[in-house]
Design goal:
The complex is a heterodimer of chains A (about 290) and B (about 160). Helices cover about 25% and strands about 40% of the residues of chain A. Chain A is α+β, with helices and mostly antiparallel strands and about 290 residues long. In chain A, strand 12 and strand 13 form a beta hairpin. The model of chain A has no long low-confidence stretch (mean pLDDT about 85). Chain B is built from 2 helices and 8 strands; from the N terminus they run ααββββββββ. The mean pLDDT of chain B is about 90. The chains are: A alpha+beta (about 290), B alpha+beta (about 160). Strand 13 of chain A pairs antiparallel with strand 1 of chain B, so a sheet runs across the interface.
Chain lengths: ~290, ~160
C-alpha cells in the first residue's frame, strides 16, 4: 500500500458507509413514527359484565334490605330505605373511581305479577324452579281476584317432568269476582274450587285453602318419585305472592319467595356513555 | 473499416446530450417509482387504520349485544343506551365512510369510494339487529344508540 496514494478510497468507503447508515436510520425512524401514530388500542369502555355485576349486586342488596325490613314480622319501610341508600352510597363511590356517575332511584313495593321479573309486561312463560326432587312447601296467595284474567289464557302453574311430560297443572282465574282454581293431571281435570271472596290462600302441598278448608291439589301424589320443573304459564295474567321450598335432585335445598317487586332505576353516565336501566327486583328472592 | 478503426466515439456535444437524456429518464423513473410507493404506503396506512377502527366498532357492537343478553336474562330492561363513537376526522389525510351492511353482517370502511382502501370487518349479534346505515367521518361526532322498542342498534 502506497502511503502517498491520495486517491481517497478510504474517504469514498467511509462516505458510502455513512450514506447507508443514514438510509437505514431513516427507514427505522420512519417505522417507529408510523407505528406510534397508529390507533393502536381501542378504548372499549363498554363492559357488559360490569353492568351484569351491578344488577346482581343490586338484586342481592334489595333482597337483603327487604329481609332486614321484615325482621320484626311486619314491613318497616324506614329500615328498607336506609339499607337501600347505604348500598347506593357505596356503589356510587365504587363507580366514581372509574370516572362514572351512577344513580339508583328506588320505588316503593309494587304488587308482583307471576311473570319472570314480576312486572305486568314481563316474560309470561318461565321456569320457576328446575330439577326438583321434592317440594316441601308450595304456597300461593292471590290478594285480589280482579288482578286475575278470566278462564281463557289464565294463569297456570305446572309441574313438568324433565323429559317434557306434564305431571300436574293448576289454572287460577277470575270467575265473577271470585278466585277459581282448577287442578289437572296430564289428561283430565281432577278438581275444581272457588274461593269465598276475592282473596285466596292456597297451600298446595298442605292441601288446604284459606286457612283450613281441605282441597286436594294432588300435587304431592302426582309429583312424588319424579324429577320435575315447576313452570309458570301466562304469568302476566295474575298478581300475587308465592313461597316455594324443597330439594333439588342433587340434594341441594331451595327456598324462594316473592312478596312484592321493587323497581330500581339505574343510570350510568360517563364521558362517552349514557345508560338508563329499569330493573324490577322481586323480593325477598331466596336461594334457587 | 474506417469506422472500426475510429476510436473517437461520439463527439463531446452528442455525448453530453446522451448523458443528459439518460439522466433525465433515470430521474423520472426513480421519481415515478417513489410516488407509486408513497401512494401504496398511504393506502396501506388507511387499510390498517380502518381495520383497527372497524374492529373497535365490531367489538362495541358485540359488547352491547352481550349487555342486552344479560339484561334479558336478569329481567331488566334498557330504557336508554347511548355511546359516543369517537372516530378521527381524517385518516392519512383523507375523509372516509363507515357503512353497516346488514345482509352480510359487515362493517365496510373506505375512503373516497376507492376500492384499494376498502376494508370489511365482520360483526355478529344474537339479541339485536344493527340498522343498515352509512356515516361519514367529516360529519363530526357519531353515536351508537340502542332502540329497546325495536331491539335495534343504530350508528349515526
Amino acid at each position: 500500500m502506497n502511503a502517498d496514494d491520495d486517491s481517497a478510497q478510504m474517504l469514498l468507503i467511509a462516505g458510502f458507509a455513512i450514506g447507508v447508515s443514514i438510509a437505514v436510520f431513516t427507514v427505522m425512524l420512519n417505522n417507529i413514527i408510523y407505528a406510534s401514530n397508529m390507533a393502536s388500542e381501542s378504548s372499549i369502555e363498554t363492559s357488559p359484565f360490569e353492568i351484569g355485576n351491578v344488577l346482581k349486586l343490586t338484586s342481592q342488596a334489595y333482597e337483603n334490605a327487604y329481609n332486614s325490613a321484615m325482621n320484626a314480622g311486619t314491613f318497616d319501610s324506614n329500615v328498607f330505605m336506609d339499607y337501600q341508600s347505604s348500598y347506593e352510597n357505596q356503589l356510587v363511590k365504587m363507580f366514581a373511581f372509574s370516572g362514572k356517575r351512577l344513580t339508583i332511584e328506588n320505588s316503593t313495593l309494587i304488587d308482583a305479577y307471576f311473570s319472570k321479573n314480576g312486572m305486568i309486561n314481563g316474560m309470561p312463560n318461565w321456569t320457576l324452579i328446575s330439577n326438583v326432587n321434592f317440594t316441601d312447601t308450595f304456597i300461593l296467595e292471590i290478594p285480589k281476584a280482579s288482578k286475575l284474567s278470566n278462564n281463557s289464557s289464565c294463569l297456570r302453574f305446572e309441574a313438568v317432568e324433565t323429559n317434557g311430560s306434564m305431571l300436574w297443572a293448576m289454572d287460577i282465574y277470575d270467575s265473577g269476582g271470585y278466585v277459581n282454581v282448577r287442578v289437572m293431571d296430564n289428561n283430565s281435570t281432577l278438581g275444581n274450587t272457588t274461593s269465598a271472596s276475592g282473596y285466596v290462600y292456597l297451600n298446595i302441598t298442605g292441601n288446604y285453602i284459606d286457612g283450613t278448608s281441605y282441597f286436594n291439589f294432588h300435587f304431592n301424589d302426582l309429583t312424588s318419585s319424579h324429577v320435575y320443573h315447576i313452570n309458570v304459564i301466562n304469568g302476566t295474567a295474575g298478581a300475587g305472592i308465592f313461597r316455594l321450598s324443597g330439594n333439588h335432585v342433587d340434594g341441594h335445598s331451595f327456598n324462594i319467595a316473592r312478596h312484592a317487586v321493587v323497581l330500581a332505576n339505574i343510570s350510568v353516565v360517563s364521558f362517552d356513555k349514557k345508560m338508563f336501566i329499569s330493573y324490577p327486583i322481586p323480593v325477598p328472592g331466596g336461594i334457587a | 473499416m474506417k469506422l472500426l478503426k475510429d476510436e473517437a466515439a461520439v463527439s463531446i456535444s452528442i455525448g453530453f446530450i446522451l448523458t443528459f437524456v439518460i439522466s433525465v429518464i433515470a430521474v423520472i423513473t426513480v421519481l415515478t417509482a417513489f410516488y407509486t410507493l408513497m401512494d401504496r404506503a398511504e393506502q396501506t396506512v388507511m387499510r390498517n387504520e380502518f381495520r383497527i377502527h372497524g374492529n373497535d366498532i365490531a367489538m362495541r357492537i358485540s359488547s352491547i349485544d352481550t349487555m342486552i343478553s344479560i339484561m334479558n336474562n336478569s329481567g331488566a330492561s334498557i330504557v336508554l343506551l347511548e355511546y359516543d363513537l369517537n372516530l378521527p376526522d381524517k385518516i392519512a389525510g383523507e375523509h372516509y365512510s363507515v357503512s353497516i351492511v346488514n345482509s352480510s353482517q359487515e362493517i365496510v370502511l373506505q375512503s373516497n369510494d376507492r376500492t384499494e382502501t376498502k376494508v370489511m370487518i365482520p360483526y355478529s349479534t344474537q339479541n339485536m339487529r344493527v340498522v343498515e346505515n352509512t356515516i361519514f367521518s367529516e360529519a363530526g361526532t357519531h353515536y351508537m344508540i340502542y332502540n329497546p322498542t325495536y331491539r335495534t342498534l343504530e350508528i349515526r
